[in-house]
Queue: 3 jobs
Job 1
Amino acid sequence: MNTDLWFLIAFSAVMLCVLAIDLFACQRKAHVPTMKEAAIWTGVWIALSLGLNAVIWQWKGPEKALEFFTGYLVEYSLSVDNIFVFLLIFSAFGVPQRYQHRVLFCGILSALLLRGFMICAGIKFMESFSWAFYVFGAFLVLTGVKMIWHKTEEVDFGNGWPVRLIRRFVPMTDRYHGSKFWIRAQGGRRMLTPLALVLIVIELSDVLFAVDSIPAILGITPDPLIVYTSNVCAILGLRSLYFLLAGLIDRFVYLGPALAVILTFIGCKMLLSDIYHIDTAVSLSVVALVLLAAIGFSLVANRQSPATAAPAT
């Protein structure tokens, strides 16, 4: 346990250092990241994640390394779905592109703490109640089936009840003030800016995504170290991935069905765990094949009908 704790401390320190380099060295001035910049940082986060996977392989063996890689692949794939929601939120609030990076950066820092708390709560819940494992499995199956058979309903993020509640009780400005989340108005009164409201909505959306993603990773491994590190690696790479794929996300027309199949598969794996054990290598193969098939079919669909291709879910 002490070894795991020291590893988590070292892991967190490295990730925070890289985040600090990104923020203070590359993002001092608010600007829209170029495709090249986004691609470089996406590559950096993927390389760090694969490097961590190699460390786990040497330290804990191939089985734990496979669990990490499978969990990372699942979480990273699910995070792509977050990008579409982020686009809707930024569009609903009219957030200038040069300030979106700051919102995502702060949102990711908060998400790390939130995910850590939810992961600990989920693991503790399963340890205390043996039936919780099957509840999570059933929830993933239902979520996957719902994603397959029901189209995603468009949400009015700008006028939802959380936004109306905040605007009613919290003093806010009616316009953006650069990249500031709050300002001091006349009389010394502090007021939130619309950018702070966007950050709150981003955080609320992450809570909803965590409800799906955490049971999914717990269906792959119950190891807290693997669960947390794979989640963190996926989350940290999300910001640069957003700027890399923001203009292309609609082209992945089969991503929704692919994620639905993956969630359903993991849910079934959890429900059948006492009857038939599915190895981590098999789970990794299924996840990878489903994602590759989704990418391949999406490319074919866009090539055949680039102007009319629409998301399948």
Job 2
Amino acid sequence: MGQGFLTPRTIRRAGVLAALGLAVAVVLGRPLVYDVDGVSMAPGLVPGDRVTSGPFPLLDRLRRPGRFERWVLVAGDGEPAIKRVVGLPGERVTIAAGDLAIDGTTVLKEPRQLAEFGVRVAAGTLTGTGSWSLPPREVLDDVAGAAGRSVVLLPVRDVGFAAVVTVAGGPGGAVRARATVGRTLVAWRLPAGRFAIVAGRLDGHVVAVAWRLPGAVHDLAGLSCLPPQPPRRWSVAAPWAEADAPADASPPLALAIEPAADATAAIEWVDLWRDVFYRPAADGVTVWNLAADAVFVLGDHPAASRDSRHWGPVSRAALVHRVTTAVLADR
């Protein structure tokens, strides 16, 4: 029986082919980088920021888009743009009273989605206090630092608070924290530690959640409207039932910490946040039916965005690359 041997020439050829294959893989696998131009995705993305695709960006053409993903796309006017996918193929998209509905059901954003494109309205530092409250007030759909075109600002009802609470006590010590949104009361028992508490009115619901913050986190006032590492789900998400509430004002909000014999607590600080306020098209259109190969895209700052409200739904083929990371400029 004969034996096969690799000659030096064959080995060199295999090495060259392997090197070429590796070089091609490196080139094709390299994420693409895009500069942000405009404020349609503010406050999360503003001019000076950069976004990147994931590895092997050519494969994004085969990816099925998900709701609330950010994509680089060829816009309806033929220009490149960064927008968020909100409507998927075959769905009926409706914008009403600032909310987004799909097939007749209002889409309730989860905490991590609110953290990504909700807007911080006001911040205040509280030291050594056990209570905070805010009466109904007018909150407008503007974005600080987003110099968009001149528009009439509209009142936003989907408003809430994000607080950080520190609890100190013995092994069995705990305090009771109570959040109030409108006429709804939500309570938690918090043991020793550092916690985030978020509550408010969102997408036709009263929402609330509390979670333990990582001990290594010190900078809690970054660009997000929520403290870091929010959970995936709300612990409370009840339909908003206050039909008599003013349509042009936020609900009354409050947070109180009840003292305990074996534990003490303080509210470190409280931020006020608002949800993105979706506007109808300029011609008054509020409903769009999507074809089997179409998606609906919107900007995070609707008052300054040109998107599917202006061009209509876009083909899935117009989605070029999914945005996976953002490199933010100094702000």
Job 3
Amino acid sequence: MKLTPIKTKVKSIQEDIETNRNQFIGGSDAGAVLGMNQYKSCYALWLEKTGRMDSEVEDNDAMRIGRDLEDYVAKRFCEMTGKKVKRDPYRYSLKEYPYIVGHIDRRVVGENAFLECKTANSYQNSKYSQDIIPDHYYAQLTHYMAVTGFEKGYIAVLAFPHIYWWEIMRNEGDIEALVSAEEEFWGNVQSDNPPALDGSESTSEAIAKVYTAQDFKETGTDIVPLTNEYFNPATYFELKQQIEEMKEIVTAQENQVKALMENHERAMVDDCMITWTSYEQRRVDSARLKKDHPDIYEQYSKVSKGRRFSVKKIKAKEIEN
């Protein structure tokens, strides 16, 4: 696969990303395209790129902290590795695929390489290992090596209080596979044809955002005819039954352990720690509050709207009605 990197200087990388994010596939999109991003599915990304769902994320503390700590992460990486880095004010793209674009955080001085800086939640520490790079990070670095032509990529992650970093060498096979997947995805964007839907939480949330309850009265009054190609009721009910049976098996095991633990809070088996801890929860009696203080209840009550999905078998006469 022939790839010709193009380098274009931009006034502001952040502005370039925010202004044109739906006009290209960026490095942070690569994991979603491949189904490796636990926070955003390929379908959710498609909704954003086609303008069906807002791609702009409201600036928050986590994003601000990430920006503020980028310099710190880069500095710590240099201290740990003895390398030097510098800012890189360029947009990288591919001549053959102009919609595949990347903006790198730092250029590594003296090497044909770049550095990506990340800040993660401290609870994610248990997910990291210096030996194994997370899949979505690998996808992002592979994307950047494709658009830059660089031979190597580094990524440093601050997951307080630890710093993790990885060195990834260019792999032409992985680059070709990623570019092919991104080409297919962008074809779906251009043809307005959605990718396959998965069962991820991201896809579920995206569908709920796009097809809201507020639009139901205008567009949801007709019955939509479906075929078994898209939905097979027999298979659906069989899977639901299997899930319920598995839940019962799991609950039975939990109950057996609880009975053995009696009033103890911890138990050990092999290398697994089991805890059964006590807690106290306080809730507002909303029914009583509404009865005794209706004004206060009305003042602090919050109305939420949504749509409830259900599948049930019906009789022939119900279909006619």
